[in-house]
Structure formats: structure tokens, C-alpha cells
Amino acid sequence: MTPRPARRAPQRQRIRRLVVRMVRAANGALHRWACGPYESTLAVTALVVLATSLPVFVACAGFDLLFGGRVAASGESGSDALALLISGCAIAVVALALLRLCRFERRITERQSLTALVLGSFAAVFMIAVAHIATGAVEPTSVATAFAEAAATVTGTNSTSIAPADLGGGMLALRAAGQWLGGAAFIVVLVQVLPHLGVGGLDSDGGVATRSARRLAPRSAGTMGRLLLLYGALTVVIAVGYALAGMPLLQSGLHALTTASTGGFSTQAGSLGAYNSAAVEWVAIFGMAAGGVSLPLMFLAIRRRDPARFLRSYEFRLYVTLIVLAAASVALWTSGDFGLTHVRRSLFAVVSMISTTGFEAAQIVDLSTGSQAVLMVLMLVGGMSASMAGGFKVVRILTLVSYIGRELRRAVHPSLAERLHLGRSTISETTMSRIVGELLLAALLVIPAAIALGASGLDVTDALTYTVSALSNVGPALGAAGSSGHLAAVDWLGKVTAGLLMLGGRMSVTAAVVAISVAVHPVTNAMRHGYWRRRDEAVRMQ
Q1: Element spanning 102, H or E
Q2: Gap between the Cα atoms of 501 and 509, Å rounded
Q3: Helix runs in 382-478, H state only
Q4: Nearest to 305 by CA among 22, 10, 19
Q5: CA distances from 348 to 158, 230, 307 (A)
Q6: Considering the entire predicted model, what is its pTM?
């Protein structure tokens, strides 16, 4: 029997396979280059991140030369190009030379993976901070300001103390591209790191319970390739939407990068409200809401042409319900003409907060007190698991509600033996303990961080709300500083605190604490050995 000729793969499958092959090729090239005598996965991670400064800075320098004057409010073109080229080349050359001396360890522990995540994040912050200083966006002596601005870029937080008019075209492109690339790196974290924490990554028990956060391929590279392809396609769709809505072409591309990544950085001082366009705001609402949806869930629904998959997701139904109820509450509690514009602005504010994007169509401090309280709660909740949004995640809220219900039933029936259920799946006790631990660690950070921000120049309302906003990677907050003036109102201590909050919220507080424990382990170990040595000597002398 003559075998049937192989069918040609559709165009979308060829693109997906190309992305997967690129991910695997990059991984193979890295292992071939990093083959030195010193075995350190931590060093390799940090150096790889620093080496990416060359293509990123070169692309932003080229953008500045070609289009800088069209997007920069100052109208200057080419002012950032030379500084970006020099700084990018210098960082990349040093990083590649050191990377040649290192190699991956044969066995990587979970503790090392978390520490590598933290070191890689700080390497990216260092890279962006150097760009701010080199281009003159930040004074060389203002290291804390450069750190906070870089942290906002890497973590996708709409918080800045620099007016967009003071940035050249190259830096505007770098801020937007930095937030988008930070989102792409977060996809890698979703696949490789967060599953070990059970706090929102792929295949964690909490994610599988909602049928929303599952692996898409047997290998990690295949899953990352598919998610990155979806991430890029979503960015293109949003860019086209902005352009059709009347936004200038270059600005539509930059805003699409920060919308898909839920970063929220805008080239305009008044954010998207500066365009005063209903069409632009509707496109942003769609883009921000999509950024808060689980990427694997979205991929499977599109790939299998099954829109009903969204409705079958317990977590997605709650996510949409929260948006609808919160938008209705904000619209009813805020005075004004109850028309389409009022409803659109209320929905815009709600979606911006729950997706942790931070775009503004109007100042949130102008809303009623009840509306502001609703938006603060949405900041804490955040989007779905395995999404680009920050916050605590909807799935964790569902898991905690299930846990509290079980404990209340145990109070009435002490001998009750019951496993936690969410939807059609069971949540393990290990995952539950990790989620509770993540919540407690985040709660313990709020008070000292708010005290530090208060000591830096903010009042109580500003300090507390900005702490929550920075930890959830949102940016806008409440108080006398307005919606977006908090970072500019604090001194160096407040800027460092805000930057650390942004990083902790994006990486996971658990990962940050584990990395700190790894850093201080040699010191504590030496102190412990010294204590027992002195005690043994004292016993022998007796």
C-alpha cells in the first residue's frame, strides 16, 4: 500500500515550530559558549541577562536615530543613540567575556533556581539603570532614582518620577521595550520557576484546579515557544487596534508593548487619557483585560477554536465577574452623568487595576471614596494564574476561600477529614501551605515598607496605598501626591524601598526571601560554627 504523502503544516504551525526551534537553538548556543572552568548557574544567569543589553540597546538606538523626534516631546532626534550604543556594547563585552569562563552546574536545586531568578532580575535592573544614567535621563549621583526607574521598567510597573517630555526617543523605546521583554522573561519564569513554588506557575496544583494553567507541550521549550508566540501575536493585535483607533503609528507600537505586558508606561504625561479618544480607551480595555487572562487558557481556546473553554474555567468566570461587579460599583458610586462615557471610564479604571497595568483615562483620586476602595482591592487580587498581570492572583483567592471554609467546618466537626477542592480538582496541602506562606510574607512586608515610605515624605494614605500598588506592580495610588506622583515625592530611601517592592511583587516574595537566605547563609553558618566552637572550649576549660 502506498503511504499517503505528508501534509504540509499550516502557516501558524510553521511559525510555532520556528519559535520553538529558536528557543532550543538559543539554549544550545548558550551551553556551547558557557563552557568555562568555573561552575556557577547563578553567575551564568546574571551574565546572560547583561549580555542581552547589546541587541536591546542597539535596537533602541536605531529607533532613536530614525524616529526619535516623532515620539519624544522635546522633538530632539538622536540624543540617546550614542550613549545607548556605548553603554550596551560595554556591558555586553564584559558579560560575554566573563560568561566564557563559567558553565552551568550539572544539578540545580530549587534554592539555586530561585536565587538565579533574583540575580537575573537585579542584572536587568542594573542594565536599565546604566542606560538612564548614560543618556542623562537621571543624574549620575541619583543612583536610587535610576534603581527605582529601572525596577519599574523590568517589573512592568507604571511608576516613574521622570516626565515623558524629559526622555528622548531612544529612552522612550527602551522603557516600552524593557517592560515587554520583562513580560517575555516572566513567561520563562512561569514555566521554569514558579511551578516549584506552587504560587501561580504552570502545573501547580492551584493552576490545574482551574483548568487554566497547564503545560502545552511535553518539553519546557515547547511550552515557552507557544506562550511567547501568543504573547507576540497579542501585542501585534493591540498595536493594530491602537492604529485603527487613531493613535499615531509609532506611539501605537510603543503603547502596545506596554499594554500586552501590563506595564502601563505611556509616552504621554496624561497616560491614555491625553488622547481623549473613546476608541483608544476601548482598545486599551480589551488589551488590559487580555493581559490578565491565563496565557495557556487563551492559547488552547484559540488553537482548538473552543471559546467555551473560557466559560468552563472557574477562575475565568470569577475574573470576569469581579470586573463586571466592580465596574458597576465604581460607576454607581461616582457622581456624574451616567452615560456611555461614564461607564467606559469606570470600566477602564477597573480593568486597569485588576490587570495591574496602571493606565489612566482619568485621575483615580477624583473618584469617590468607595470607588477608590474597590480599586485598591482589585490591585491586591490581580489577574488569573499564568497571566501577565501581577497581584495575588484570582486562583490564590479561590484557594484561600476554600481553605477558610474547610477550617470553619473543622471548628464545628473536629474529626472532619476533608481535602481541599477547587472546581473538579484537589489542592494538595503543600500547595496550600505555600500560598498561605506567600500571603503572610507579603503582609509582613507592607508595614515596614509603608513606614519607610512615610519616613521618606509620604503621609499615611499615600504610603499604605503606594506600598500595595508597588507590590502588586500597578503604579498609581491614592493620597495627596495624586495618582502618579508618589515616586517623585520620596527621597532616596523611598525610591529604594519602592524598587524593592516592585521586584518582590514580580518575582514572588518567597523567591526573594529564599535568595536572601542563600546570600546570608555563609555568614550565619560561620556565626553558628563560631558559637559552638566557643561553647566547646568553655566546656573543656571547666
Answers
A1: strand 102-103
A2: 9
A3: 394-412, 429-455, 460-471
A4: 10
A5: 15, 24, 24
A6: 0.87
